[in-house]
Amino acid sequence: MADGPADIAPLLRVEGLSIGYRDAFGAMLPAVRELSFTLAEGASLGVVGESGSGKSTAARALLGHYRAAGKRTGGRILIRGQAIDELDPASLARLRGIDVAFVPQNPLSSLTYHLTVGVQLVEVLRTRAGLTASAARGRALELMTQTRLPDPAALFERYPHQLSGGQRQRVVIACALACQPRLLVLDEPTTALDKSTEVQVLGLIGELRRSLGVGLVLVTHDLNVVAQMCDAVLVMKDGACVEQGPTAATFAQPATDYTRELVGSVLRLDAAPPADRAQHTPPPLIGAQALGHHYHPGGWWRRRRAGAPAALQAVDLSLQPGEVLGVIGESGSGKSTLGGALAGLISPTEGRMRFQGMALAGGASARSREQRRRIQMVFQDPLSSLNPRQRVGTAIARPMQVFFGLNRRQAWDKAAALLDELGLEAHFLQRYPRQLSGGQQQRVAIARALAAEPELIVCDEITSALDATVQGQVIDRLLQVQARRSLALVVITHDLGVVWRMAHRVLVLRDGLVHEQGRTADVFSQPASDYTRLLLEAATSASRHRQDPALAPATNPVKDSAR
Amino acid sequence: MSDRLRLLSRRPLALVGIALVLAHLLMAITAPWWIAHDPTALVGPTLEPPGEDFVFGTDELGRDFLSRVVIGGRAAILVAFSAGLIAALGGGLVGLAAAYYRGWFDDSVSRLVELKLAIPSILFVSLFVTGFGQSIGVLITVIAVIKMMGAIRTSRAAGLQLMALGYVKAAQLRGERGPAIIGREMLPSVIDLLLVEFALRSSSALLLVSALSFLGLGLSPPTPDWGLMIHAGLSAIHSEPWLILIPAVCISTLVIGINFATEGIADALGLDAARGGAHG
User: Fold this and answer.
1) pLDDT tens for residues B204-240?
2) Contacts of residue B103 in chain A, CB cutoff 8 Å?
3) What is the DSSP letter of A467?
4) Which residues pair with A350 in a beta bridge?
5) What's the rounded Cα separation, in Å, for the pair B253 and B46?
6) Where are the beta strands (DSSP E) in B15-164?
7) Which of A150, A180, A142 shows the shortest CA–CA distance to A167?
8) How far is residue A301's CA from residue A51's CA, in Å, rounded to a whole number?
9) Which site among A126, A305, A332, B142 is 20 to 30 Å from A11 CA-CA?
């Protein structure tokens, strides 16, 4: 550890950093513009922004790394007073891992799949820290204990694919900490993880930071993560810094509209969720009894495998006309299977469904034409849910041609009206999906579902591929349409904020079973299980700053909303 | 589209390839109007070296070699491009159908493709030609079948990816029939891919048809054909090597031209041309 410059210079100082990418035609496109910030020893900074805001590019630059065709076009990065862009390759290599370490997003692709976890840790320790083989082994086990990996001696011999996602990310963190770096750069470290795993990994990072005094730069799109982890926050948009400051103050009183919009898109429990309407409504629109589904390897000569875990088990639900049901759960909880069964994408292996008093078959091809028309679906990825070779008008017109036998002229006229209902102008009919933004594409997908004049729309994670500020617009439009047409919706999501805003009732799925079910306000204010409480906690930490009476004069929102 | 043209124009090899293919096509199409001699007529002494009267000399029967070279690609190009077109379109449809229907249809198609790939092409053609004769129609059919196998695999793989996309699922949920979904939703999405398949399969079909003619299994005399000309020139390889070299250069430039052009076009379309390869 060098003295001298470290005493005066901060751990990290970035001055007017600009980075550009060369496109296929050779023109430089700016990815990061004039970015400046400093980070003291042991401090933590959250860098937030939507996809494409340049936050990952900036993070990698802190290690002197630029992606192919990327190049620093201006500014300096100083680590303890040392400008890293002036270093020769050998010194830069020494800097990486020893002074600055990096934790990437996807823990599976950042570990070598044919080497055991132990071998990879030992390799880092031998090449970077210069330890002998036996010393490295001891230190590796120590690191694994430090990162709370269960039974380090056994995990040492395992391959990455034999570990869970959370364990893999711990191994990557252990690798990053191997040489006791002073600065840890984390790029979306928990985005690929489930909510409950995310809570644990974030807890570990926070603990290590306190015990080792390491500085953090944490890049994320999730404001809740920043709220939990970071003293300061820097908001990026289009490669430039929009706003920076202490986390609590910035979230409580954003200085710019953009930050306000970002913060506003985080779950707040200060407005009431849609009121329950179950009491004063006719018999259910759709109902399911003991619904269950097993995925099994297909093929006509293969045996159905017994004993494979069920994706869905014994799910009972009913939905009134015009009612919105939120289905939440982590990946693998069976929520998409449930949506697929209701929509007709898969034929559930167990249980029965009824729609408007009639039996409802599993697969779409076994349903009546009217049933197919009345139940529509909107998919997660808006771009791939629209045919890239078809104009928007063709896509929206198709269901009307199929279900109502309209000719092209009539169908296109009605398509224009539908676009208008969703806040898009008629000239979008002539466009191709690729020419639209993600939010526009998703509104077109909703228009296509509405074209069939359905009674029920199954929405499978329809906002999760969209940026935070766009999510709100799409949800607003959908809610307006839902109210106007008295549509029933099944909203499948991992985002509790979406459920809070949209759903009358909520159903929590875990491991294919219904974990909890009830009115949205009830479930959110008095979760019956620890699991639901954990999900809620992970989703609300950013808004908690504003509940601090010193910063924002707010009443207890949960109590407020439960009336 | 103009962006794609710009990308294409930045690849010199692609431009060279396109120029070679266009030159060959132009030559093959316009040749009958400007060649000096009837390519099948005996117009001079045998094995005359290149000179003033006969620019490329004469062959072993005394026919004008320049006229024969210029016209000698027509039959092979016709066979190769027709077979390539049938292979790309037919293979595309079969592959997409396999991806759409899965089940026994997919299993049978996949096993048949593997079975076919295990039989050497030359052996396959010779069995066919012995049975059905050596007409151009038979050649096109049999080469199309051979070249179709790769196209089936490529489009089946692409089709499986499409099946996971929302727009195909939405069409299924509307209750649309298989052929409608394949034709309306899936085929347009793989048209880029099939264009590249067509080009790659055509170039390897050209090599195959020339090899077959050389072996006496393809086009038959007196049709002027590069493969046949190389076969005929074999006996004079030491004394009159140009009788082999000139048609060989013709075949190579056309095949190389197609491959360069394909690579550039695939690049501009954002596809990975290396995947198919020219050997399928």
Assistant:
1) 999 999 999 898 888 888 788 898 889 888 888 888 8
2) 298-300
3) -
4) A292
5) 27
6) none
7) A150
8) 46
9) A126
Q: How far apart are CA A58 and CA A36, in angstroms?
A: 11
Query: Would you call A385 and B165 a contact, using CB atoms and an 8 Å cutoff?
Result: yes
Beta bridge pairs of residue A236: A241
Quote the CA–CA distance of A534 and A516 in Å, as a whole number: 13
- Indicate yes or no: CB of B165 within 8 angstroms of CB of A298: no
Q: Which of A344, A372, A385 sits opposite B167 (nearest CB)?
A: A385
**Coil, helix or strand for A73?**
strand
Distance CA A200, CA A203 (A): 5
A361 touching chain B per CB within 8 A: no
- Give the Cα separation of B23 and B19 in Å (integer): 6
What whole-number percentage of chain B has pLDDT above 90? 42
**A384 Cβ contact partners less than 8 Å away, ≥ 6 residues apart:** B165, B166, B167
Contact across the interface for B189 and A387, Cβ inside 8 Å = yes
pLDDT at A556: 34
* pTM of full prediction above 0.80: no
Query: Would you state the structure tokens that stand for residue A29, as one six-digit string?
Result: 């496109």
Two structure tokens written together for A251: 């979230």
Chain-chain contact of A376 with B173 (C-beta, under 8 angstroms): yes
Residue that the structure tokens 């799949």 belong to: A113
C-beta neighbour count of A529 within 10 angstroms: 13
* Nearest chain B CA: its distance from A518 CA (Å): 30
Query: Could you say which of A24, A375, A386 has the minimum Cβ distance to residue B7?
Result: A24
Convert A376-413 into a string of H (helix), E (strand) and C (coil). EEECCCCCCCCCCCCCHHHHHHHHHHHHHCCCHHHHHH
The residues that bridge with A161 in the sheet, in sequence order, are none
Closest chain A C-alpha to B170 CA, distance in angstroms: 7
- For residues A51 and B210, the model is more confident at B210
Q: Does A280 touch chain B (CB under 8 A)?
A: no
Q: What is the DSSP letter of A38?
A: E
Dihedrals phi, psi of A279, to nearest 5 degrees: -70, -40
Nearest CA in chain B to A383: B166
A367 → chain B, closest CA residue: B175
B174 and A343: CB-CB below 8 Å? no
Q: DSSP string covering A346-385, please?
A: S--SEEEEEETTEEE-SSGGGS-HHHHHHEEEE-S-TTTT
- Report the pLDDT averaged over residues A33-45: 90
Residue B189: list chain A partners with CB under 8 A. 387-389
- Residues of chain B with pLDDT > 70, as a percent, come to 95
Residue of A342, A375, A384 to mutate when probing chain B, most B C-beta within 10 A: A384
Asked whether A117 and A111 are in contact (CB, 8 A), the reply is: yes
Which among B246, B270, B257, B255 is positioned nearest to B72, based on CA atoms? B246
Whether the upstream peptide bond of residue B222 has omega within 30° of 0, thus cis, is yes
Distance from CA of B177 to the nearest CA of A (A): 9
Alpha carbons A559 and A269: distance in angstroms, whole number: 9
Of the candidates A142, A163, A164, A165, the one whose C-alpha atom is nearest the C-alpha of residue A153 is A142
Is the Cα torsion angle A29, A34, A38, A43 positive or negative in sign? Answer: negative
With a cut of 70, say whether residue A553 has pLDDT above it: no
pLDDT tens, residue by residue, A214-237:
999 999 888 888 888 899 999 998
Closest CA to B85 of B195, B190, B193, B189: B195
Q: Is A461 left (phi over 0), alpha (psi -120 to 50) or beta?
A: left
Quick check: A372 and B172 CB within 8 A? no
Please enumerate in sequence order all residues whose Cβ is within 8 A of that of A169, keeping only pairs 6 or more positions apart, or say none: A103, A107, A189, A190, A192, A193, A197, A201
